Amino acid sequence: MLAALLLAACGGKSQSQGDDGNEAGSVSRGGTASSGGATNRGGAGGSGGVPAQCDGFPNESGPTIEVRFTNGTARPLYLGALTPGCGRGSTFSVRDSSGMTLEGPQFCSSSCQDIARGPAISCPPMGCAVSSVVTLLPGESTGQEWHGVYMKDELLPAACTQSREATTCSRVAAIEAGTFTFTASAATDIDCSPFGDGACTACMADPNGGCTTFGAVASGRSIPAVVSVELEPSLGVDPRDPVPAVGLVFQE
């Protein structure tokens, strides 16, 4: 049964958020890291012969923040991708005070730090779970983590690349203190036809709330939820601290 819920090859790239590599419903402490590993903010650069000017592009770790989605309507709502693919996809997006959407690191992508330390990451094809949808009954909630990082464009000096040519790359940067706007969408229906005969499998209870249907996509009318919050980058970094939460409530 589990084998039937795998796609043959997804190019090695997760469709989890923009957010940071975590699927909806997954709430577990820990910092985000790209394939090259994350350093603490302002950390020292590389070693082993990496030129000193290449040390200014380290991957950073941001705050761990739980994003909670609550169904405030009188109908079931569905969280998931609208088209077939790998996993559930990102459930929410984040904009900073300038209105820029903060794109998170993708699975198996090369950051400036990776390029400075060696050749770009090459990702082989791999299996991935098919699309899934979380069902929230009226009053139910579920959670997803955001790690407070985004991809920031940088110009990597020629001395830091194997080709010895300056190149544009993306650094995993931690957020600064400020106002951030979280936006999410829930759907009014579920479509189980993409990977079978249209009959939905049993909705499996999720420990974070709601239940999950595999081999399905969200469909129907979209119901948005938006909230703006003030965030400090120190929140959630220390594992001894409680995980700060951002609440999004879907209402008609």
Can you put this structure into words, describing what you see?
With 252 residues, this protein is mainly β. The chain has one domain (3-250). The chain has one helix and 14 strands; from the N terminus they run ββββαββββββββββ. It has one helix at residues 112-117; strands at residues 6-7, 65-71, 77-80, 92-95, 128-129, 132-136, 141-146, 149-156, 167-174, 178-191, 204-205, 211-214, 217-231, 245-250. The strands form five sheets. It has a four-stranded antiparallel beta sheet with strand order 3-6-12-11, with no helix packed on it. Strand 11 and strand 12 (211-214) form a beta hairpin. The radius of gyration is 19 Å and the shape is globular.
Give the biggest beta sheet: 4 strands, antiparallel
Unreliable stretches (pLDDT < 50, length at least 5) are 1-48
Q: What's the β-strand tally?
A: 14
Please tell me how large the radius of gyration is. 19 Å
Q: So what's the oligomer here?
A: single chain
Which characteristics define this entry?
single chain, 252 residues, 2% helix, globular, disordered N terminus
